[in-house]
Amino acid sequence: MASQDPVAEKCPVDHKTRETWLAQAKKANPSATQPPSSPHAAAPSTLATPGCDSSSMEATQTTSPHTPPPSDPSSTLGTTRVISTIPRALPTSPSQTTAPANSERDTGADKATGNWIYPSERMFFDAMRRKSHSASPTDMSTIVPIHNAVNERAWAEILRWETPFSEASKCSGPRLESFSGTASAMTPRARWNTHVLGYKPPFDRHDWVVDRCGTRVEYVIDFYAGRDEGVEGKALNFYLDVRPKLNSWEGVKMRALKFMGW
């Protein structure tokens, strides 16, 4: 995700995540030149909700700060950016910052909605190249829509956790303050699922910080490839295990209330 700052390049996936998304897209529809515009992400049964639809998000066009030379592989990539449905928590004073925890360059939010803005194909590719990840320009038409849809699904799962607390506090609702990707750091639950229960390990992990009207709640998200990934014609299938971290009293309380069926 990213802002309207033309140099902001957000959320480039790592090599493992990129390969997982590409493999699922090709297996889901091997004859298509592009992936479905709104792939569905299936969550574990305890967190099941309808998949997100990226077509509901508004598209916006930005201008590149410079015209790439013809030899630049990103020169043919699109610059259209999509406004997410995820509200952004902005600083309340000039001395504060809400820069993403992964230190990506980023400022502001969409002026009309206050929401995060996803990177264009060109920005996504440039960010991966800058981080020395293996990437092909032709992959961007596949990766970027999946990236956007999966992030929308992650936010939908967070809203399932947050809605009862936001309604109780009568506030305007939660906003995403920052996020970071830590694919190499497996969570305790992921280790249990992998080493004890025998499931495939998650291909990615994100840590998101949510501002609920002044209350900061940290979430962890494990991304798993779906079981139907090898079935031709199946919708893209991802399992998102989203839950508050147990590193604060708020996270412990939310988990306990969830366990008791509240």
UniProtKB/TrEMBL annotation:
<feature type="compositionally biased region" description="Basic and acidic residues">
    <location>
        <begin position="7"/>
        <end position="19"/>
    </location>
</feature>
<keyword id="KW-0479">Metal-binding</keyword>
<feature type="compositionally biased region" description="Low complexity">
    <location>
        <begin position="30"/>
        <end position="50"/>
    </location>
</feature>
<comment type="function">
    <text>Lyase that catalyzes the covalent linking of the heme group to the cytochrome C apoprotein to produce the mature functional cytochrome.</text>
</comment>
<dbReference type="GO" id="GO:0005743">
    <property type="term" value="C:mitochondrial inner membrane"/>
</dbReference>
<feature type="region of interest" description="Disordered">
    <location>
        <begin position="1"/>
        <end position="114"/>
    </location>
</feature>
<keyword id="KW-0408">Iron</keyword>
<keyword id="KW-0349">Heme</keyword>
<dbReference type="GO" id="GO:0046872">
    <property type="term" value="F:metal ion binding"/>
</dbReference>
<dbReference type="Pfam" id="PF01265">
    <property type="entry name" value="Cyto_heme_lyase"/>
</dbReference>
<dbReference type="InterPro" id="IPR000511">
    <property type="entry name" value="Holocyt_c/c1_synthase"/>
</dbReference>
<keyword id="KW-0496">Mitochondrion</keyword>
<protein>
    <recommendedName>
        <fullName>Holocytochrome c-type synthase</fullName>
        <ecNumber>4.4.1.17</ecNumber>
    </recommendedName>
</protein>
<feature type="compositionally biased region" description="Polar residues">
    <location>
        <begin position="92"/>
        <end position="101"/>
    </location>
</feature>
<comment type="similarity">
    <text>Belongs to the cytochrome c-type heme lyase family.</text>
</comment>
<keyword id="KW-0472">Membrane</keyword>
<dbReference type="GO" id="GO:0004408">
    <property type="term" value="F:holocytochrome-c synthase activity"/>
</dbReference>
<keyword id="KW-0999">Mitochondrion inner membrane</keyword>
<keyword id="KW-0456">Lyase</keyword>
